[in-house]
């Protein structure tokens, strides 16, 4: 293997874009988190039911620079 292949290897990004989904209604939005952090769980206002709801990370969408 050539030294240039090692030097030109693409580095992994620090942040990733993830899809968050409501546990109650299924409402979805995207947010950014660090790659090495645990999966996100947060409370946020759900416009479908007009109340606060628990959102869980459902899927990783893509990496960001």
From TrEMBL:
Its main location: mitochondrion. One of its GO terms (molecular function) is structural constituent of ribosome. Keywords: Mitochondrion, Ribonucleoprotein, Ribosomal protein, Transit peptide. The keyword Methyltransferase does not apply. Pfam families: Ribosomal_L33. It comes from the Eukaryota. GO terms for biological process: translation. The keyword Oxidoreductase does not apply. Belongs to the bacterial ribosomal protein bL33 family. This is Large ribosomal subunit protein bL33m. It comes from Anopheles atroparvus (European mosquito). The lineage of its organism: Eukaryota, Metazoa, Ecdysozoa, Arthropoda, Hexapoda.
């Amino acid at each position: 293997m050539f030294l240039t292949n090692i030097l030109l290897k693409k580095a992994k990004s620090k942040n990733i874009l993830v899809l968050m989904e409501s546990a109650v209604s299924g409402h979805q939005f995207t947010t950014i988190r660090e790659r090495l952090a645990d999966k996100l769980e947060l409370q946020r206002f759900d416009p479908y039911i007009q109340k606060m709801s628990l959102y869980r990370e459902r899927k990783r969408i893509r990496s960001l620079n």
